[in-house]
Amino acid sequence: MVRAAVGRGLTHLAITDHDRIDGALAARDAARDELQVIVGQEVRTTAGDLIGLYLEKAIVPGLTPADAAQEIRDQGGAVGVAHPFDRFRAGAGRRGWEQHLERLTPLLDFVEIFNARLLVGNGNRTAAEFAVRHGLPGVAVSDAHTVFEVGVSYTIMDGPLATAEELRQALASARVVTARGSRFVRAAMPVAKLVQRLRGNTRVAPQSSVRT
Fold it and tell me: How far apart are CA 136 and CA 86, in angstroms?
């Protein structure tokens, strides 16, 4: 992932595995000075997935969205909503999410308004409308689960991004670059999503993903 990011001209890469940060820490060590790896996590909450960035320790899964967001904040991290309206993945469009918004929204720093792995439906458009409605910055992400996908979509920001606070400042003028995944990803995604749906609530090994 690090080699691909450097080769494709990226300067920052957020590693956001589900419910763990050890892979992100290893990537940060491997990158050295070539790339700034932001240690993150895709956090499973009781009502959908959140993104935590600039973490020092993993967030325990299964908290309410607001509680998980507060834990991220307590570490000095930044909080985002992942693929909020993808019908196949848990996000802000999930039933019951509305009751959490009042507590969660003030804790959010960004919304994924374009997720390159969202290939079916108008979830990205709905996410963009959600961000505008709540006055939140939007980002585009590759959500890469394979090296092929690194940098497919990304967000351009100016200024230093060494801390969550610097990220918040840079998000005010962020520009998004959007593109869908590769042909391989397009072909594989319907099968992958079907498998995810069939798994239901069965516990599976954490997935690896990156945000660019």
Answer: 19
Write the DSSP string, 157-178.
--S--SSHHHHHHHHTT-EEE-
In three-state secondary structure terms, 207 is coil
Domains of the chain: total: 1
Asked if residue 180 is part of any domain, the answer here is yes
pTM for the structure as a whole: 0.85
* Neighbouring C-alpha atoms within 13 Å toward the C-beta of 186: 6
> Is the CB of residue 86 less than 8 Å from the CB of residue 48?
no
59: domain CATH number is 3.20.20.140
Confirm whether 212 is domain-assigned.
Answer: no
What DSSP state is assigned to residue 57? Answer: S
d(CA 157, CA 63): 31
- Within a domain: 95: yes
- Residues forming beta bridges with residue 160, ordered by sequence position: none
- Domain enclosing residue 155, as ranges: 2-207
Express each pLDDT in 56-110 by its tens digit.
999 999 999 999 999 999 999 999 999 988 887 766 556 667 788 889 999 999 9
